Each structure stands twice: as structure tokens, then as C-alpha cells.
Amino acid sequence: MIRLDDIAIRRGGVDLMTGVSFTMQPGSVYAVIGPNGAGKTSLLRAIFGDLPLSAGAITVGRDRLTAAGGRRFREPRRWRDRFAYMPQDTHLDVALTVLEVVVLGRLGRLGLHVDDATLALATERLREAGILHLADRYISTLSGGQRQMALFAQVLMREPTAMLLDEPVSALDLRHQIHLLDLVRRETRKRNLTTAVVLHDLNLACQFADRIVVLRPGGLSAFGPPQEVMTAELIAETYRARVEILRDSCGRPVIQPLGEMGEAVSGAEGREP
Ligand SMILES: Nc1ncnc2c1ncn2[C@@H]1O[C@H](COP(=O)(O)OP(=O)(O)OP(=O)(O)O)[C@@H](O)[C@H]1O
User: Fold this and answer.
1) ipTM of the complex model
2) What's the pTM value of the predicted model, to 2 decimals?
3) Which residues does residue 60 pair with via DSSP β-bridges, in sequence order?
4) Which of 40, 47, 201 gets mutated to test ligand 1 (max ligand atoms within 8 A of its CB)?
5) Which of 15, 41, 89, 165 for a ligand 1 pocket mutation test, highest count of atoms within 8 Å of Cβ?
6) How is domain 2-257 classified at the CATH fold level?
7) Where are the domains of the chain?
8) Residue 142: its pLDDT value, please?
9) Residue 219 contacts by C-beta under 8 Å, 6 or more apart in sequence?
């Protein structure tokens, strides 16, 4: 379980978000959505212990990360070991093959020796991700989407208790988006992981997430199951976009864009995407 209590994050001397509280349970997928610059990446990095809190606390199990510094400065490794964090920017300009990059998911446990069992596991992870055929290619020669799949295989290799995935499908075509998010959901259920995934596609968020975390500039605008959270009013308020909410055959919301609305009204003034 990951619990956020009244957290605040500052960036560049400005309060990016304040008063954010919610709890993420194991076995569930949480989609983090919100407009450009709302703070989705910052929120994930704060949970990972990579950005300091300016107020509040994050609790994972018996560990607690506080605004005062707490865990972040004393034992960053121990705090982070439980997470598999996949950053938004997956550009890698290194002379490593795909298989080697996936093996690096075990770096903390390996020393410098890679045994056969680790290679077999990495191969299995590549197969699950559907990119075993790329194993011997240099990672720098892959397409953006292929690189995302390889880095997701590395995430699986870490055997985390929580996954923090920042726009993991941004470079993937439709089939691979479905493949990766389906894998995310299956692994989350099977291994009882707590998973937060930043998505821009609201329909994918509704389809794959158990709960949606909606950020707006300044803080949390809604939190809950897609069926409850996704209203035309909330989307208008959060994105300044007009939409119609349809339902698929399972009753999940389907967001149909209708058009833009007027100028920004919230704390987004002056903040560029
Ligand atoms: N190093 C930094 N110094 C100052 N401000 C920053 C820094 N990095 C990001 N910001 C600002 O913090 C705000 C939130 O950025 P963040 O990347 O968390 O948003 P996001 O919701 O993930 O955006 P996007 O959807 O565009 O990826 C933005 O206004 C951004 O300009």
C-alpha cells in the first residue's frame, strides 16, 4: 500500500501541488491523468523519492518519507528498492543490447556476474513483452516504441512491489499499447503490485485502470473508479475541453472529444506545457 498524506511539491520556487492525499492498494492499477504541466511526472518522482516533498508524508508499509527529509536522505536505496520506476524519457544512447539492458534490471543483486538463471529470466521477460527477436540489437538502434517495450521488460525484471510507469505507451501503436497495458494489469494482479501509470489517453485509462488519479495545476481534482470520476464536467474543468461520455459494452466510460473550451481558468496561468 502507498499512502499520500497531504503532500505538497514545489518546483522552481512555485507550489506545483498542495494538499494531495490518496491511498493506492496492492493488486490495483492507478492511472494518473491530467493536463500538460499538472505535475504527473513530479508526483511519480516524489513517490519514488527522487523529488523532495515540501509538506506531508508518503507511507509505504512501515517506511515513511516526509517533507523534513526523512528516508530520502538517510536511506534512499532502501526506499527505492521496492519500486520499478520507468521514466518518461526512454532515450538511451549506450552500446548495450536489448538483452543486456533487461538484465540490468537485476543490477542491485548481481555484482558483475550474470548467471544463466538471470539470462533465462531476462529472455522470458523479453518474450512476455513480445520483443525477444530484438534481444541482440543495440538498444540505441531501436525505435521509440521498441525501446519502451524493452524498458518495460526491465521493469518486470526488477520484481518490484510497486510499479511507477511514466507514459509507458506514448510511443506505442494501438496493438502494443494494449499488449503492454494488459501485461501491466496482469502482473499487478498476479504479483499483488501497487501500480501507478501516467497516461494521456483517457480511454486507455478508463479501460485499464481500477482507479483514476486526476491532477489539475495546483493539486488533486478527483480520485476514484473511472465510472464515477469521468464526467464531462470534470473533464471540462480539468482540460478545458468539451467531451461527451459514452459507455462501452462493459459500462466503462468512453470519452468522445467535441471541442476546446475558452481560456484556462485555474492555477495553470502562465504555465507552459
Ligand atoms: N526542473 C524543473 N524546475 C522548475 N520547474 C520544473 C522543472 N521540471 C518541471 N517543472 C515544472 O513543473 C510542472 C510540472 O511538470 P511535470 O513534468 O511534473 O508535469 P506533467 O503533468 O508530467 O506534464 P506532461 O504531461 O507535459 O508530461 C511544469 O509546469 C514544469 O514546467
Assistant:
1) 0.96
2) 0.87
3) 2, 63
4) 40
5) 41
6) Rossmann fold (3.40.50)
7) 2-257
8) 86
9) 17, 18, 19, 20
